[in-house]
Amino acid sequence: MNISHHFDDATLMAYSAGTLPEGMALLVACHLHWCPHCRDRVEVTNSVGGALLDRLEPAALDDNALDSLLARLDEPEQEFASPEHSRSEPAGDSELPAPLAQLLGAPMDELPWKRIGYGVRQIDLELKGPGAARLLRISPGVSVPHHTHGGNELTLILKGSYNDELGRFCRGDVADLDGDVEHQPLVDTDEDCICLIATDAPLKFSGLMGRLVQPFIGL
Amino acid sequence: MQEFDAEGGDVNAAAVTPQTLTPEQRRKQVRDEWSACLTRLAETRDKSEFARLFGYFAPRVKSYILRLGMPDATAEEVMQEAMLLVWRKAHLFNRTKASASTWIFTLARNQSIDRMRRDKVQFYELPEEEPDPEQRDMGEHSIIAERMQEAIATLPEGQAQVLHLSYYEGKSHSEIAEQLGIPLGSVKSRLRLAFSKLKAHWGEEV
């Protein structure tokens, strides 16, 4: 995969600090699954956390903390799924990065896509917490209305490509945008463009078309 | 002293004797020792190695979890879960990829996120108190001055503050912007600056 658009340092720091909303963290995990360059970078942002841990003043533990944990070491281990270490067997669509494939559990074509306007379909992942995460499937030649963002918006291209004011985005690329950017992506091949989009605040559409679409997208 | 060999190009690093180690070099030595200890634990499954790791890391992991805003009893539980994972997943630790501190930090962070998502109500209730903003800022500055030494203390206060609020109080960038009354873009650019300075300052070590 030829990836040319990556995350901002600040986004990877938020991922390492554990402060991204669930959908954005999922999106970062998906890109990391595909992108060795960002996997190297996140090792560095994680190490900021490790270095800070060394500098923390130790807290007082319960008196028998060590003994009670030592007593549990031989307990049989319950199966616990770890996305980082189950990459080899993604469930569902093998075209998708494993963390997303596991969440969806079905190939993309079998998902209940909802039409939300001219050539645009979506699936809301209905994650909890602030912001939203959804899949958008945009038909060739269609452009998403001009919009800006109240907060941050991350987009990961899963299939196809689009062009906007910032460049051309293909499978594996991420667009890492904050509130100052207004853009209008246009699908520029004869293939549907499918993206995972995660935000930490509602999108703001500008223009008449945008105001018409906004209620349907339900943000 | 394998790590010093790895930095062979640095004349100053090669010349130091144990007596003249800077605090940062001492810290690095400690970090390397714990990475070796965790590697041995994976190979030997020796509970006394685990007990040593526990002695150093468990109080720090709990301190981290407390700072995220969890009550003491919950922090103790989450710390126990994180340290249990250290025991169970030690074989996945790869010291060429991360130090023991960093690896244990990510385990503690993931356990904390899982717990916060499960106990959402409890978590979101915590940060609601609104003390006088000026007083609060003073408080945070003094925490930074006390607890973040060397490299982090060399950062300009504004940068150290956003790093601290992000990694150690679990605040999102938008929350930090709101709390400090600065634009989101400034929070991010402070973090980027802090990050590039820390990378340069810590060099090989991070």
From TrEMBL, chain A:
Query: Which stretches of sequence are listed as region Disordered?
Result: 77-97
The protein's name is Cupin domain-containing protein
Q: Which NCBIfam families match?
A: anti_sig_ChrR
User: What sequence ranges are listed for the domain ChrR-like cupin?
Assistant: 108-199
What organism is recorded for this protein? Marinobacterium alkalitolerans
Any Pfam family from its record, for instance, is Cupin_7
* CDD domains linked to this entry: cupin_ChrR (cd20301)
**InterPro entries linked to this entry:** Anti-sigma_ChrR (IPR012807), Anti_sigma_zinc_sf (IPR041916), ChrR-like_cupin_dom (IPR025979), RmlC-like_jellyroll (IPR014710), RmlC_Cupin_sf (IPR011051)
TrEMBL record, chain B:
Q: Give me the ranges of the annotated region Disordered.
A: 1-27
Q: Which residues form a coiled coil?
A: none
**Which InterPro entries does UniProt cross-reference here?**
RNA_pol_sigma-70-like, RNA_pol_sigma-70_dom, RNA_pol_sigma70_r2, RNA_pol_sigma70_r4_t2, RNA_pol_sigma_r2, RNA_pol_sigma_r3/r4-like, WH-like_DNA-bd_sf
All copies of domain RNA polymerase sigma-70 region, residue ranges: 53-119
**What residue stretches are annotated with the RNA polymerase sigma factor 70 region 4 type domain?**
146-198
Could you identify this protein by its name?
A: Sigma-70 family RNA polymerase sigma factor
The Swiss-Prot or TrEMBL record describes its family as follows: Belongs to the sigma-70 factor family. ECF subfamily.
User: What keywords tag this UniProt record?
Assistant: Sigma factor, Transcription, Transcription regulation
